[in-house]
Amino acid sequence: MNSIKIEKDTCASVRCNQGHTLRTELHPRSSMGQTRKPLLLILVLCAGIYCAPNWAWAQGTDSDLPDSPSQALPQSSKDDANSPSDREASWRTLPKDFLHDQKAIWLFPTQLAKGRHWLPTLAIAGGTAGLIVADPHVMPYFRSHARGLDDLNDTFDAPITTAEVAAVPVSLMIAGYVQHNPYHVSTALLAGEAYADSAVVDLAIKAITRRKRPSDVPAGESFNDTFFSGGKSPFKGSSFPSGHAAGVFSVATVVASRYHTHRWVPWVMYGFATAISFSRVTGNSHFPSDVFLGAALGYTITRYQVLRPR
Questions:
Q1: Is residue 212 part of a domain?
Q2: What does pTM read for this prediction?
Q3: Once rounded to an integer, what is the mean pLDDT over residues 151-175?
């Protein structure tokens, strides 16, 4: 009986040690899984962007269907001067197109003086002003619940989101050269042009407003009086507007507009852009008004200037 008891105790201790070893091994694996999430997200997004335009291309080789969304449009749409699918770009014309965009952007007040575009301008200005008023009341909630949003903030950390946004035009560029498809290459160049146009406007406003980031406000202090009190550098110390929101919405608008015949592409791209923009608020990097104006700038500059056929 004693020998049986000793054997049982020995087995129990072995099971206990094995269980302890198993638990210690599971923890690092779970932490590794956390670090792999952003990489997996980037790979899935790139694969989706790479494959979506290729479905129409692959079908066209077998059944004489058009190679790109621009060719899939009916003749009446192709003749529409406002169709973003008609806008083409090349490495040779890119510098000239960028300067053309900047001239039109900074001369936009002259369009207002002629009585044009007042409705969307007032809508964006009113929405931004309303959110600025609400910012001091909203940000304490996100600061107090920051720990509960760690997974989201880790997945959309600033360097990671920059890589995710850049992966979209890069994947299209690679697909275009591999398949000898100029439409993909043109889309990638337009995405870069839109990103650059939005970045110039974003940095100019940042340099003027010099708004503190929510993370720069000490704990327990009010989120009021944050304008004109941040760092002197628009690259680091200024919060208004959000450069990440402007950049991701500019890229998303290019891809969503030029591949809108695949109905799921706009949903994926704008959903992706919204998730990144929202993470800038939950991570205490920006106020809601920063994100709203950044997204509005990225969308409007891209849709109504960059994608205008010329």
A1: yes
A2: 0.75
A3: 82
